[in-house]
Amino acid sequence: MSEAPIIDCLQYTNWSEKIFREMQAGGVHGVHVTIAYHETFREMVLNLEQWNRWFEQYPDLIFLGKNGNDIRRAQAENRTAIFFGFQNPSPIEDDLGLIEICHTLGVRFMQLTYNNQSLLATGCYEEVDTGVTRFGRQVIAEMNRVGLVVDMSHSGDLSTLQAIEISERPIAITHANPSDWHPALRNKSDEVIKALTQSGGMMGFSLYPHHLKGKSACSLNDFCQMIAHAADRYGVEHFGIGSDLCQDQPDEIVTWMRNGRWSKKLDYGEGSAAAAGFPPELGWFDNNGHFSNISHGLGDVGFSSDEVSAIMGGNWLRFYEQSFEPEVK
């Protein structure tokens, strides 16, 4: 590969032609997109139908990505490969067999929890983390078998540590930051990041303001210094970007993200009423044309050009190549 790709391993954007063109202009070759927060299987399929219409309408801009080779194809064709993921296991309901069906439909990531206790594990907003459930253990095994990545971005520490131990394939935390840099409920402890990286897993750094020191006022230098500290501690090869970009989303979408159908009251989660709506985006990163700002910022804090390329997409490409195909036994 002559040049490393740009891969963003999590976005929940209000998708449109404008954004697809920003991806192309910004040289973004792969994006993991959220197609389910609280949807049932059938509701998730309706979201797939919408994506199929976009693939039909904008074939010069986007296509469905299923493996690492599709990143290389996107580079060659100046397009963006779209990889589907669930932020909640709700689409598999209580049916183990739906895991393989979802993989067949193109899904490549699934979180075991989204903030709350699920049938599989405990979310990061629960007071007591009881770990991975009996059903969760079987789900992890089936995800390993078919090539669906275990994502623990919104899970509690015990559940995450257990998932790392149970999974026979490396897992991912697609969008979070170290909690010792900024103590948001969703950011990850040293113990978790150490276990993740030592097992060959990957973590994507989040640019969602509630996960940043200084929130919407976080500077590019502070963000890149945080990455440098993590790379020094755990190894640069385990990190990429998972921006959690929520571009052009109306505030009422936060209610669906936080509440689904389980609560009549807004689940603030982050411990502040500021979480009730989308926070102001960062001035240096508010759309898919701004990944070059991160690249330059990483260089400014001392990363070599090869290390910048690894963080901006090369590490995720390696992980995609290793993770999306069924197990061979």
Care to describe what's here?
The protein has a single domain, classed as TIM Barrel. Helix 6 packs parallel to helix 7, helix 8 crosses helix 10 and helix 10 packs across helix 11. The mean pLDDT is 95. Helix 1 links the parallel strand 1 and strand 2. Strands 1, 2, 3, 4, 5 and 6 form a six-stranded parallel beta sheet that branches. With 329 residues, the chain is of the alpha/beta class. It has eleven helices and nine strands. The longest helix has 19 residues.
What is this structure's SSE topology?
Layout: E1 7-11, H1 17-25, E2 30-36, H2 41-57, E3 62-64, H3 68-77, E4 80-86, H4 98-104, E5 107-111, H5 134-146, E6 149-151, H6 157-166, E7 172-176, H7 190-198, E8 202-205, H8 220-234, E9 239-241, H9 252-259, H10 291-300, H11 305-323
Parallel strand pairs: 1-2, 2-4, 3-4, 4-5, 5-6, 7-8, 8-9
Helix pairs in contact: 6-7, 8-10, 10-11
